[in-house]
Amino acid sequence: MSKLAITGGEPLRKTPFTQWPLADNKETAAIEDVLASSKWGGQPFPGKYAVAFAQGFGELHTAKYAQCVNTGTVAIQAALIAIGIQPGDEVIAPAYTWEGTVGPVLLLNAVPVFVDVDPETYCMDAKLIERAITPKTKAILPVHLGMRFADMDEILRIASKHGLKVIEDCAHAHGGKWKGKGAGSMGDLGAFSFQSSKLITSGEGGAVITNNLEYMELVQSYINAGRASVTDQFHHRIVGFNYRLGEFQAAVLCAQLERLPQQQKIREENMAHFEDRLKNTPAIGLLKPDPRITRVAPYGYVLKYFSDQGKDIRRAAFVAALQLEGIPCDGLFYEPVYKSSLFPVKAADFPALSWGREKALDLRNMYSCPEAEKAAYEEAVWFPHQLFLGNKKDVDAIADAIEKVLENIEQLRGLDHKAIRQQQLSRADRES
Ligand SMILES: Cc1ncc(COP(=O)(O)O)c(C=O)c1O
User: Fold this and answer.
1) Where are the alpha helices (DSSP H) in 284-417?
2) Whose CA is nearest to atom 8 of ligand 1?
3) Which end of the chain is more exposed for a tag (fewer CB within 10 A), N or C?
4) Are strands 380-384 and 300-305 parallel, antiparallel or unpaired?
5) pLDDT mean across residues, the chain
6) Between β-strands 165-169 and 137-140, what pairing exists: parallel, antiparallel or unpaired?
């Protein structure tokens, strides 16, 4: 028996893991090059880094076209515009995701419709989509969450059967592949984020990819203040905004993109070793592998903690104990969006929620998605991807810490500790 760090013992891991974001002289040289060039503006105004990045990023994801934008949220918004989402249309989205997946739906005065997630993957449960379809449904917005893909085979089949569009939220899936096809290239459009925690980052940023030139032209006009797109074959003229990404960020992204394959390989090897270490650990469950995922893109390593096998010690205490052992991780990483404090939807602010109804839709109280709630409040444990960018010793430290906490879990019974109290709060409500 050893004393857990949370009760005053020695932390198992005393040195930091790989820090994120990572940069080296490639980023520095590219930024200096932009600085000297006097071409600082954003794509689609031609800048050599923006052009090179869009081309490389599209190719990586087996898509013909890619357009940088200033955030991942805007990437989703622009994709919704491209497919012609109108006020009052319904868009089906998973309940367990970041609020930014559905914020753009509301912003366009359309209506998000939540479906529960599959407990094997924590991604949208394709079996539940058809019952959420109504005459107003226009699109499905799956999220490839954490380290898995939503079942794109089923989603595309359902979309084609019902004449719906598909936008893939790929904020977690840079470089991922499903049956050889790149994340974001299977639906009508794919939306990526380059916010600082992501697998490729420029601090903030995003991209839209598609194989459809008309969609690309609409995206380009929308994010470039309504100007004609570079190709302008479809001659759309729409009201647009300045949602461009600057050339400094594109330069950083070029360096990040070049480094991704090497990082992907390291993460894959380290995660395989992690799973080997944990596969028979009591109270720990691994997400089901899916052979259709031909390249995993793990934004985070996500596993399950079963408190009933952990002597009924709640996840918040388990996670806080791991944190104090020196392992960065999180339990309440996402909430079901409809319960999140970052989703204080008022019907008065979004008129479509009332249209054609005696009573406005109450998005905060009309849903109950048991699997999303179980993942959010009881089971899921998220480890940031950079923990797996080091060596085997780093991975062993995570597995050793999990074993240490489980072997000494009695020490957590009835414990009151600030880290546990923080873990009980949603991320938005915690002290930073
Ligand atoms: C699943 C998901 N969707 C959308 C977004 C929105 O991206 P951004 O923060 O770049 O606007 C994020 C990230 O933050 C995300 O994790």
Assistant:
1) 315-324, 370-374, 392-407
2) 72
3) C
4) antiparallel
5) 97
6) parallel
Least Cα distance to 189 among 168, 161, 162 occurs for 168
SS3 state of residue 111: strand
What are residue 137's DSSP bridge partners? 90
Render pLDDT for 158-175 as a digit per residue (tens, 0 to 9). 999 999 999 999 999 999
Q: Is the pLDDT of residue 46 over 80?
A: no
Written as one letter, the residue type at 249 is Q
Look at the block and give the residue holding tokens 């203040």. 225
Q: Residue 128 Cα, ligand 1 centroid: separation in angstroms? A: 24
Which pair of tokens denotes residue 408? 């000494």
| Omega before residue 104 within 30° of 0, cis | no
Q: CA angle, 187 as apex, 182 and 190 as ends, to 5°?
A: 65
- Which residues in 364-377 are b (16+ Cβ under 10 Å) and which e? eeebebebbbbbbb
Closest atom, ligand 1, to C-alpha of 194: 10
Count of residues for the chain? 432
The Å distance, Cα 364 to ligand 1 centre, comes to 20
CB-defined site of ligand 1, < 6 Å: 71-73, 97-98, 100-101, 143, 169, 171-172, 193, 195, 206
Enumerate residues 6+ apart whose C-beta is below 8 A from 217.
229, 231, 232, 233, 234, 236
Tell me the whole-structure pTM to 2 decimals: 0.98
Please say whether the beta carbons of 371 and 118 come within 8 A.
yes
Peptide bond into 336 cis (omega under 30): no
Structure tokens at 257: 């993109």
Q: How far is ligand 1, taken at its centre, from the CA of residue 296, in Å? A: 19
**Which atom of ligand 1 lies at the shortest distance from residue 76's CA?**
4
Q: In angstroms, what is the span from residue 76 Cα to ligand 1's centroid?
A: 9
**Whole-Å CA distances, 136 to 78, 111, 352, 364:** 20, 9, 12, 20
